[in-house]
Amino acid sequence: MSERVRELYLQVLKSARRQFSRGLDQGGDVAAETARVLDLFPDLDHPPPFTVPEPKPSHPLLTPLSAFLKQHPDLVPGLAELAPFLPWTYNYAPRADDPNLHERMGWFEFIGPDAPLHSLELGFGIGFSTGNVTYRPHIHPAAEIYCILAGHGDYHVDGEVRRLGPGDFSYHAPFAIHAAIRGDEPGMNIYSWTGDVVTLSKYVDEGI
């Protein structure tokens, strides 16, 4: 890993943390969970040793992601340069009703059980999706926050629907059924997990 990639990695993570910290002003569950996340953060001025995994240059998400970041270079400063060096992922099983979903949504985790900055208490990353994506109902045992940076969508949480966009936050309690439907604009969000951050998400059968 080059020193430049390491510098960018910490720059992007610090920027994401600053934007995520606005959740402290939201009140309620969002503020409480944001405080919990920030308490679990490593010291980014004196981080432990870490290595960014090798990139996957053929990942199909990189083309739309790069185009999006060229249009929004200041959304997360440094991410446009760093993104090609990150192994973006999508770890759900393929869906017969949406077989190319892995080409239109994915994420990278900065902190977590398998992340460069290892933690068994916190997951923290950035997610991206192209336009016209439905992130179908799913659950996980971790508590989660979405800090929405770009794009608008209908966010379903335990039967309630809210129209959210940049600057909004969405809290998902452990095992809450949640989903998101995006229109024709790409979306990007910062996300956090606390609690059981090892058990992966799984889709549920309830449709939207």
How confident is the prediction overall: mean pLDDT?
92
Q: Spans with pLDDT under 50 lasting ≥5 residues?
A: none
Stated plainly, the CATH topology is called Jelly Rolls
What's the helix-strand series? HHHHEEEEEEEEEEE
- Span between N and C termini? 42 Å
Shape: globular
Integer count of domains: 1
Verbal overview:
The protein is an alpha+beta fold. It has one domain (3-203): Jelly Rolls (Sandwich), CATH 2.60.120. It contains four helices and eleven strands. The protein has helices spanning 3-20, 28-40, 62-71, 79-82, and strands at 105-112, 117-118, 122-129, 134-139, 143-150, 153-157, 160-164, 169-172, 178-182, 187-194, 202-203. Strands 2-1-3-10-5-8 form a six-stranded mixed beta sheet, covered by helices on one side. The longest helix is centred in the N-terminal third of the chain and has 18 residues, at 3-20. The protein is globular and about 45 Å long.
